[in-house]
Write a structure and sequence with these properties.
By secondary structure, the protein is an alpha/beta fold. The protein has three domains: 253 residues, Alpha-Beta Complex (2-enoyl-CoA Hydratase, Chain A, domain 1), CATH 3.90.226; 178 residues, Rossmann fold (3-Layer(aba) Sandwich); 216 residues, N-(1-d-carboxylethyl)-l-norvaline Dehydrogenase, domain 2 (Orthogonal Bundle), CATH 1.10.1040. It is 49% helix and 12% strand. The chain is built from 29 helices and 19 strands. The strands form four sheets. An eight-stranded mixed β-sheet has the order 12-11-10-13-14-15-16-17, with helices on both faces. A six-stranded mixed β-sheet has the order 1-2-3-4-6-9, with helices on both faces. The chain starts with 5 loop residues before the first strand and ends with a helix. It binds 3-hydroxybutanoyl-coenzyme A. The site of 3-hydroxybutanoyl-coenzyme A (3HC) has 23 residues, from strand 5 and helix 3.
Length: 691
Amino acid sequence: MSETAVIIEREGPVGLIGFDNPPVNAASHALRVGLKEGIDAFAADAGVKVIALYGVGRSFVAGADIREFGKGRKEPLLNALITEIEALDKPVVAICHGYALGGGLELALGCHTRVAIAGLTVGFPEVDLGLLPGAGGTQRMPRLTGVTAALDLIPTGKRIKADEAVALGLFDTLTDGDPRTVAVASGQAVIDGTLATRRTCDLSVDVDPEVIAAAKAKAAAKGKLVAPMKAIEAVAAARLPIAEGLAEEVRLFQECLAHPQRAALVHAFFAERAVAKIPEKDATPREVASLAVIGGGTMGSGIATAALIAGLPVTLMEVSDEALARGRGTIEKNLAGALKRRKLTEEKHDAALARLTTTTAVDALAGADLVIEAVFEDMDVKKEIFRKLDAVMEPGAVLASNTSYLDIDAIAAETGRPADVLGLHFFSPAHIMRLLEIVVAEKTAPEVVATGFALAKRLGKVGVRAGVCDGFIGNRILSHYRKVADYLVMDGASPQEIDSALEDFGFAMGPFAVADLAGLDIGMMTRKRLAPTRDPRERYVPIADRICERGWFGRKTGQGYYLYGDREGPNPAVAGIIEEERAEAGITPREITDDEIVERYMTAMIAEGARVLEDGIAQRPVDIDAVFLFGYGFPRFRGGPMFYADTIGAAELVRRIETYAEDDAFFWRVPPLLARMAADGTTFADLDERA
Ligand code: 3HC
């Protein structure tokens, strides 16, 4: 960070204030101090006729400094500064390039005219952090654009480009060029009278209560986030005189700031970035200009789609022409979906498809820089593939397996180059889900790990470093806590009660609805695979096996825990199976509350998370949080399982586990890490900070 954060200079009658607070010019305390100094100096300088604000580096101002939230407010505050700027006698012009987000956009809206430089992105991402624009954005944007446009942006966090911002009236001019040069020229244009200025606060706006009510209904339908609702209330206050509206905005902002969702969402923001801080971060990634994918099933096709969308040429290999045709068909469908969702333009869609080649010959993969094997989970098949790859791939090529649980060390050992082998575990649908577990085997070279992370970034994914064990980070933890859902069914809850309690907690879908979607045969195969290693002391719930015996595999067969098609709802036959199994096990069902469901489920998740940390499979608690946020639909407003654990506290978690252990001491064991944390009063956040 530069020492001053702001460059203050004069170019004739134009007073220039340049923000220089790398990497994104967040409006930190230092930046605010510098801005105030500049404004005060130029206000007092009779030679300065106009003041121009611009950004040095990548952006104008990317918003308030998120790291300062919750740490007490230090003057000068951004909202007061903006009001001061708006009230100045001298015109102030904002020159925005790169990003003008949140507080940065609010600063621009308080200026007397706004110039956008081509390529600019603007928006209010505050709601993604559990906040609302707290420096006048909710009052000034509606005054400039009307309420409908403001409601399209502020409660959604949507970002728009410069041309749209100008079309909406949020910006006055669109131009091209270097920000400082444009600042000088725009200042001069204001003096010359060719660039008009006005105060946003002098405008007024009508607020239709029906439009507000409709926006609230839309936000409520989207889930449990508090900030979008309060943001809408703040926009509604734009009907008031500006001072009153601003006061209402501050009141609502403070409510958001104090809400637990805000801390969790800020944690999620940093989690997404913290995962890239790996021991191998200084290694130079190998260049990846082309990719090969082996296996054209759902996974392989999804991975190929992600790479094609990211601009990489892909060679897809399958065993037969028929299988290849199916793989190509899936990729075409995926790309058509991306086009429909406007993730791709027509032109990019066609170019992506043109980058795909298919083959049935392993030799044809030889030129690829990185190959990902995504065939079905059979160790012998995978070993054979890696032997072949070892024979044909160029030296330096990276060899990856997309296995969800198999031992990467054993796969790597089949090759004469284990340093080039790693796991790249994608999540289905691979072109949509953002998580990528990057599984580092014993001999994986640091630059191969770095290559995995570089690929994740290129594909727009969140790469998380994981160690080798059955299921790595995510599936290992999942296979543990998922059992709790079955235990609860045996003990008295219905699958629907469990799903609804967990959906109420914030998961998009409960575990039984997810099982039906994934296919109950998948779980059955896992149980079969693990049967030989199952400890006889482990409680086993046969309900899912009984459902599968009937050929009911969930959605794809029209029934599972639920019925699909024209007979929606819980499957009554499953209720019968559950009753029989309870009777067989001699269990009298008991009343189980929603709170108990959530407590047991989450406690099991956290306990296995703690063990994953102890075993070194995940580097830090935040890596586990990222895995669950980006791969398992964990509610973002709860920050991730380990963040959530800290809101409960290690002592309480230990107490819960000890209580549950009275009935099942095999499953419920206190992880030593959690016991130590309870004893010394530490948190998972402390572990993150130490890492
Ligand atoms: N405050 C503090 N740090 C920030 C930050 C912010 N507002 N925005 C980004 N950073 C940090 C990141 O943590 C990262 O740090 P690291 O290198 O140590 O991990 C670094 O800047 C670079 O960020 P990215 O890796 O995200 O860089 P990209 O180029 O991919 O993206 C960006 C740039 C689009 C600006 C993106 O960082 C972003 O969306 N930032 C968040 C912007 C935001 O939410 N602003 C609103 C803040 S709330 C507010 O303004 C309240 C106001 O209404 C009062």
